[in-house]
Amino acid sequence: MITEVTGILLAGGKSRRMGEDKRFVEIGARSLLERSLDILRCVFQDVVIVIAQDSPDLSSTVPVVRDLVADCGSLGGLYTGLSVARTNRVFVLACDMPFLSQETVRYFVHLKTEADIVMARLHNGWHPMHALYGRRCLPVMESMMAAKDLRIHRVTEHPALKLHTVTAEDLKTIDPAGRAFLNINTPADLELARSIFASDRS
Questions:
Q1: pLDDT above 70 covers what percent of the chain?
Q2: CATH number, domain at 36?
Q3: Binding site annotation covers 67?
Q4: Which of 12, 20, 146, 152 satisfies CB 3.0 to 4.6 Å to 128 for a cystine?
Q5: SS3 helix, strand, coil % of the chain, rounded to 5?
Q6: What is the total count of domains within the chain?
Q7: 148: annotated binding-site residue?
């Protein structure tokens, strides 16, 4: 059980493209929220769920906190999680990733060393919602939110922060297909995920 990093689950999105609350969409009879939370609880001693200020109440066996800054999307959720964590680093996950694995999460934490950020950059770009962040990121995030620059991957560009980039080559033995980074945004994404899940079980 990892004690020096807190697991942060972001579960306060609007789900506009999905048309229903993604947190409670089920794959294999379990919701996306349950799947993500189970992974974090198996890896980290401390786990916190962050929801938006205007999200419906969410009951959980772990602490649930609301965004400290309203209307800043995932960046605001990450900022909140990093601010309330008792540890100097957090590992953040979005709750719409059905194929998360403990092995991949542990690999990212193992790479933390002195890095302020450990983030994957794969063929389809950066993956800031399956990444590790340190407290030195907080003032950078505050400046970004003040400027309404809410693109989380932009935090990797700040010269004061040390970045460790994870590549597809790094992940070829533990997640060769990049499934851990697949997220659900649309009904088509959900259909694909359910198809993959069914294929894996056949």
A1: 95
A2: 3.90.550.10
A3: yes
A4: 152
A5: 35, 25, 40
A6: 1
A7: no
**DSSP states along 81-126:** HHHH-SSSEEEEEETT-TT--HHHHHHHHHT-TT-SEEEEEETTEE
Q: Which two tokens stand for residue 53?
A: 């200020």
Question: Is residue 13 marked as binding?
Answer: no
8: phi then psi, degrees, rounded to nearest 5: -115, 125
The CA distance from 200 to 202, in Å, is: 6
Q: Which amino acid is at 113?
A: T
State the chain's mean pLDDT as an integer: 91
Selection from 26, 27, 23, 25 nearest residue 11 by Cα: 23
Burial class (CB in 10 A: 0-12, 13-18, 19+), 57: exposed
For residue 38, the enclosing domain spans: 5-201
pLDDT at 158: 95
